[in-house]
Amino acid sequence: MAALTEARKQSLRREMEAFLGAGSVLSDPDELMVYESDGLTLFRARADFVVFPRTAEHVSGLVRLAQREGMPFVARGAGTGLSGGCLPAEGGLVISLMRMHRVLEVDYDNQLAVVEPGCVNLHLSWAVGPRGFYYAPDPSSQQACTIGGNIANNSGGPHTLKYGVTTNHVLGLEVVLPDGEIVWLGGRRRDPQGYDLAGLFVGSEGTFGIATKIVVRILRQPQAVRTVLAVFDEIDQASEAVSAIIARGLIPAAMEMIDQLTIQAVEDAFGCGYPRDAAAALLIEMDGLAAGMDEQAARVVAACRETGAREVRLARDEAERQLLWKGRKSAFGAYGRISPAYLVMDGVIPRTKLPQVLRRVNEIVAAHGLRVGNVFHAGDGNLHPNILYDPRKPGEEARVVAAGGEILKVCAEVGGSISGEHGIGLEKMDYMPLVFSGADLDCMARVKRAFNPTGLCNPGKIFPSRKACAEAGLAYRLHPLEEKGLAQRF
Amino acid sequence: MPSPLSQRLAEIVGAPHVLSGAACAPYVIEGRTPELAVFPGAKEEVAAVLAMAADGGVPVTPWGGGTRMGLGAPPAHPGLVLGLGRLARLVEHEPGDLTATVEAGMTVEALQAALGRRGQWLSLDPPEASRATVGGILASNASGPRRHLYGTARDLLIGLTMVLADGTIVRGGGKVVKNVAGYDLPKLVIGSFGTLGVIVEATMKLRPRPDCDRLVIARFGTLGEAGSGVRAVMASDLVPSALELADAEVLRALDGEAGSDGAALLVGVDGLAEQVEWQCAELTRLLKDCGLRDWRLLDGEERDQAWRLLGRMAPAVFPEGSAGMSWGVLPTQVPELMERGGEIARRRGLRAALSAHAGVGMVSAALGAAGAGAQRVAETLGEWRALVNASGGHALVEWAPLAVKERISVWDTPGPAQRIMKQIKAELDPRGILNPGRFVGGI
Fold first, then answer.
1. Which residue, A112, A117, B189, B364, has most beta carbons within 10 Å?
2. Which residues in chain A are closer than 8 Å to B209, comparing Cβ atoms?
3. Is the interface score ipTM higher than 0.95?
């Protein structure tokens, strides 16, 4: 797409303001800068406009305008994504959904809620909490991330081991299709007729359209919760404990692992009471009926001791439980104290492969002369190796990226996947051939074309680039970022 | 003299695995006999068969255990039946990962038996598990009462391999429980009735088998009282695995005795012994306030038999022939719609049997069709559909004699999203050879 002239920009701005209202369009370069990246700052791209619709009709009008002008467009929530998925193509429209943030309706009897896409994840749980309900998917960024963004990435979180990811909690969506038509995919009732387009839409990373209303399940809060911290001198023991707990017939609500480097960073920053000399700690939470809870806790404690835990601590009250979780949830912030920057990797492996893969991860990072902190969802094999680095040191960023690629390769080799919850976005397009054949990707491309025939809806994401395609034998389009020399593939 | 097509198919799968003429009799669909039935022994053979069919423009009807072949609009021409029964291996089961990969033609019962030996199960309980295949239940999105707690195939399927109409083998999802790489093709394929591809292998999430598993039958004087029991359970801390509401006809079939009346609630409770005990006690307490008449705990074979019967209630209630619908409604609407559905049938002089997965809002509604005349049955189903649609729900004719299906559409009128469905179908099966015409809106 050719760059817009200043005069054309002004006229488009006036046209959009006419139906969105004043103060709903940004086009000043300083203001646009805020929207140049998401949580992954390795990639940046600037849109021509950032717009703030308030209704589905607004979104539809914007999408129709973009199609008329041949402008690429992308939806954006809170920008907490970690794969560059909501980055604009250079130029075009960023459609921010932050003004569409209401909980529209709660139906407690049927245990569902209807929300707008910009609704912050945690705000829904706050809204239904007083009546004893909550919304189960809980990404670590739940204080900021939006449910619309969660839909795009099919987000997970610590409690997905027992409760599943976003897709397991979505019943239906009102979406603006890439040609501007507003339709419902699924709804409030189960098993709607036809293809499960709602299920397909979740996790499509904004390439099938823009959700404007979302029907989600809400769950009753569990009667009882028990949280256990198990401390290990060997990281292998902690990994084995995860499988041992499953083998005892239990599915805890969460099983999170924190390695030594992370424990030390967290202790320095917040003092949550994790033993600094431990090789790894497992944070295990069970929830459900009060009856049988002691028995479950006893089984967990026994499994941890059997695999060599040197200490197993049961949180005595809510305050202690919160403190244990604070260590887990603040880990990313704590890295900031010990390193100027870090890259959050996101890979998944079968959980029985944890010991061997964690060893490989640590070897790979060390071979590149870097440090890594591991804090992750051990229960479902979703790794988060966080590679620490200093972007001011020449060449260090490239080594981080290379190490990340090698880690993903290991994940794929053991039967895992290259993303558990952050999505492919721009970051991992070129790793897709590690887990999918050319035929698999071609099938996905055909499905994409059914929704998005002009390709203007969030272009240049998910599918591998020319370099990767040459290996896999796929057709390739140059991403606008590359055309302008603003980004390159690795 | 074998046709050229059957000869070429025999070259792919071996002559004993191609049936033609009278030998195809077990594979008749809605009174129409397929030309040939072919049974590949590997996914590559499935691919070769499909490539050949696509080339010749021959329609293909995928066939698992055949338990749900009556679902969907009658086919204009069943063409080639593609049986998956020879693809029946458990490819991989790693108990520590709580996942299993299985070929599509394996029966649900055989899979559960294999998983059970390692203390696990696939938490799906579709009807007729001894014949229903994994591929078939995925393609037809079959589930059972335990979906109340454990969800449906869409919550359990994490990866699949399918063969597209042109013979391309593609994979979606993967082997790990959390995975957001690429589009969620498994969701697209669940419930697509074989119109987008032929499922050859599936990877699913498993659960440990509960220590203790019980079924409670609670009887009430009226459907309304049993319905208030559902509300009480839903609003409580209980986490039953199943919550089934049954009307008087269904109850009679369960009891196997004449003269039962009223309605019943069947509640599945499983987990650790202590959890089950507490839930049963709490359940009695709650239901007493709703007019509970009588209460019984089932265990072992008695329990399994009740579950099996509940899974295929209509043939048990109406052994001489029936037509049935499934309704998707809001859970709170279930008791009233069941009540009104029963009245509609009675007014038309027909017997009806209605039960529901009450907590998720799925009603199974059957009509005694024998001797009733296709027109009257079709009109009653039509009135049911109007009732359900007016409440905002949807109604699917799940099974009916062909004469009834000729008078009423199997599917509801498609909505605007149908356009996208047709585009997906056109992209993946441009020549329209996979189960043509049987799906929503003529797909």
1. B189
2. 249
3. yes
